[in-house]
Design brief:
143 residues, alpha+beta, four-stranded antiparallel sheet, two-stranded antiparallel ribbon, globular
Length: 143
C-alpha cells in the first residue's frame, strides 16, 4: 500500500499529473532556464506544503507529478507555481532578453489528471516523454 501523508485529522495520498506549456509554445525551456526551473518549482511547491514527486522539463511542455494535500485545490497550487515562477523568471532573466514577456510566460490553462494506483505508469510516462516526443517528431518528418 502507498505511504500515507498526515494532516491533523486526515490521512491522505493525493497525487496529480500536471502538464503546462510556455505562452506561444516558445522553445525556451532548455539550457540555463531548464536547469534553474526544476529547483524553482520544487521550492514553490514546498512553500504550499506540496511535493513534486517526478518532473521533466521538455522543449516546451512541463510534466510533473505533484502530491497536493486535500486542503488545497489543484487549480490554486498550479496557479501559484505558474505565477510565481513567471515572476521569478522575469526578475532573473527579464533584463537579458528583450522579447521575454515576464509575468505572461506560461500559457493559460493546464492539463491535470489524478494518479491513483497508476503511479508507476505515470512516473515511467514522464521519464520517457522526451524519447516519445523525439520519436513522434521523426515520424512527422516523413509526412
Amino acid at each position: 500500500m502507498d505511504e500515507l501523508e498526515s494532516l491533523s485529522h486526515t490521512k491522505w495520498t493525493c497525487k496529480y499529473h500536471v502538464v503546462f506549456i510556455p505562452k506561444g509554445r516558445r522553445k525556451m525551456l532548455y539550457g540555463q532556464l531548464r536547469n534553474h526551473l526544476g529547483e524553482v518549482f520544487r521550492n514553490l511547491a514546498q512553500q504550499k506544503e506540496n511535493r513534486i514527486e517526478e518532473g521533466h522539463l521538455m522543449v516546451d511542455p512541463v510534466h510533473m507529478m505533484i502530491a497536493i494535500p486535500p486542503k488545497y485545490a489543484v487549480s490554486q497550487v498550479v496557479g501559484y507555481i505558474k505565477g510565481k515562477s513567471a515572476i521569478h523568471l522575469a526578475r532573473v532573466y527579464g533584463e537579458r532578453k528583450r522579447n521575454f514577456v515576464g509575468q505572461h510566460f506560461w500559457a493559460r490553462g493546464y492539463f491535470v489528471s489524478t494518479v491513483g494506483r497508476d503511479e508507476a505508469v505515470i512516473r515511467a510516462y514522464i521519464k520517457k516523454q522526451k524519447q516519445e516526443d523525439q520519436r513522434l517528431e521523426q515520424l512527422n518528418l516523413w509526412r
